[in-house]
């Protein structure tokens, strides 16, 4: 109980610091921070990487011999790709694109009747402001550098690994049983991404590099799930997989430098 009270007290104090910093710099200052987080400090290679990978949805859309364009799928794929690239770079602005992507992906998943994806996307949408607060709190309360697009990556110890693997198994089995209770045709297959997405998002919010292992598992299974359904979403997950490998490398480098 004492630890819980301490965590709540620390959260309230950190939140007050974040709010005070936001009031101090004002709306114009917040917009400047967003601009800097999006555009400042990116190398030429990073710019080329961002442009090339975010062009994949456009290439897929305009090379298809179709009479009409899937603008919703295109925008969902584009915002998702930009989001994960910003995550790999440790930029808090990823949460802006993540919120937009989650909202669009929710509609697409409901239309495709992928109800496991619907629940996961609702969870993602809720986690965006929480993740943004955590990342900003890390900069302001721990680093004292709100102006910098800097993050301090951490790595899991053995006990933490066991804890998160156990959580993955609990979510997978629990959601599988829930889907089975409503006569889902593939309950435990649908619940795989619930588990990997859920734990991956928690690790991302807490700045652990091992998030990328869970993202890779999610991406590969999602490619299989969306096969033949929506080419934009398939393309998005292929790019996600590539970016997850890059993210693992960049966050591992950040851990060593920290």
Task: Choose one word for the global shape.
Answer: globular
Largest sheet: none
Percent of residues in helices comes to: over 70%
Number of domains: 1
**Structural classification:** mainly alpha
Say how many strands there are. 0
Radius of gyration: 19 Å
Mean pLDDT: 84
Terminal Cα span = 32 Å
Return residue spans where pLDDT drops below 50 for at least 5 consecutive residues: none
Helix tally equals 10
Q: Which range does the strand content fall in?
A: under 5%
Order of helices and strands: HHHHHHHHHH
Main location: membrane
Family: Belongs to the nicotinamide ribonucleoside (NR) uptake permease (TC 4.B.1) family.
Subcellular location: Cell membrane
InterPro entries: NMN_transpt_PnuC
Explain the overall architecture.
- The chain has 258 residues and is mainly α.
- It has one domain (41-141, 155-257).
- It contains 10 helices and no strands.
- It has helices at 2-39, 44-54, 56-62, 71-88, 94-111, 115-143, 158-181, 187-205, 211-225, 231-257.
- It is globular.
- The protein starts with a helix and ends with a helix.
- 35% of the residues are buried.
